[in-house]
Fold:
Amino acid sequence: MAHTLDQTVLDAFEAILGSAGVITAEADRRPYETGARYDAGRAAAVLRPRSTAEVSAVLAVCVRDGIAVIPQAGNTGLVSGSTPSAAGGDVVLSLDRLARRFDLDPVNRSLRLDAGFRLSDVNRMLEPHGLFFPIDLSADPRIGGMIATNTGGSRFLRYGDVRRNVLSLTVVLADGDGTILQLGSDLRKNNTGVDWKQVFIGTSGAFGIVTEATLSLERLPRQSATAYLVPSGPEAVPLLLAQMEERLGSLLSAFEGMSRNAVAAALDHVPSLKNPFRGGEIPDYLILAEISRTSAPREGEEPLSDMLEAVLAEIWEQAEAPLADAFVGPPEEMWALRHALSEGVKHKGRLIAFDLSFRRGDVTAFCATLGAEIAEAFPGIAVCDFGHIGDGGVHFNLAVPKDSPLWSDPGFEARLRDRVFEATVERFGGSFSAEHAIGRKNQSYYDRYTPETIKAMAEGLKAMTSPGTLGSVRFGRAAVDNR
Structure:
């Protein structure tokens, strides 16, 4: 049972938000209590503000009355960062009604907007202006959640992550006043002091709730070409990436790796996909490469598809070519397969998913090494890895059959997570969180691998910004609170 809030507190919330802005009925709370990947908790109430001022007012009430707050944007995260705990004492503060301001400056290529807009809606409204927010994701999160987790996506190689594409933030602190901070501006160059907005990007809402942002936009690509590349072996992937970059420069906008298991899962479970491989035989490993231009085709200019074919032919003709096979194809079809991977692997079994980051040259080596070790130590688990080779990120998904005897061992998942993260951090020098930030699922690894000095600095920042209980993450040195 969720804890019930005192009626005077509920009355205070309703006075600020109106009756539609406060949800207490169990059935109506459930969508906000259930995460995208198996996690679920209990909320005492769900609060749905429509403005920065309303966020400020409700946070002040929560801090005054000692109520823990879980900020929630699109609730698409995979590490239990946006769902309430099982104890039932949290309130969820949802951004789903915070989507009114949308101020586009096409000359500055910037957009000031509320944090509750979904990525798909933002890009739909920008398309007539020839612009987009260049974070390409399979999910459809809200802008506030993207900022809180510093998402990257499939075209990080060209455009970078959210951190690189945010100009300013409006943030509300969980303090007694619900303090509102304006951090940054529409300027791209401003070196008049500390860039405080960076404290609130990628830190899971622990230091304050992002309610508005100014985004830096890019021109929509008007030409693109894609190819599937089959490397001659895992060790050839870094060399292939380097040769593509050498020949194509900034035209290379994506270099996405996909394992055979992940591709097979997508083809098996997404009926609209076509199997593009000769004889239907899926290669052990596949790369989706994309090149693109934002300018319209000019008379006499070489088409990008011809350029891509010529570059691949050059690489193919080398004495020890890193390329075993390749073919250029329609971008829409090739990207459809890549974006279907997440949906496909969900049907392989119950997923234990990892969002990891490495030096670019170590991604395939890690996947090959850990894939073999897991197959030996945990028979029956299917490794369905895919990710962003161009930036060193990998979604290392382990699909465990739902009827596997491993689930009868209560310590199984913890041992598996320990093994993957120990290899990631200690053996390969990687990160246990590439672009999903920190949630309850990886809190213990933050505690284990973060230096004490950094924890102390984070603890000081937390005390200075939002002394109230905000978010599911504990960045300081204090004992972990998993409420």
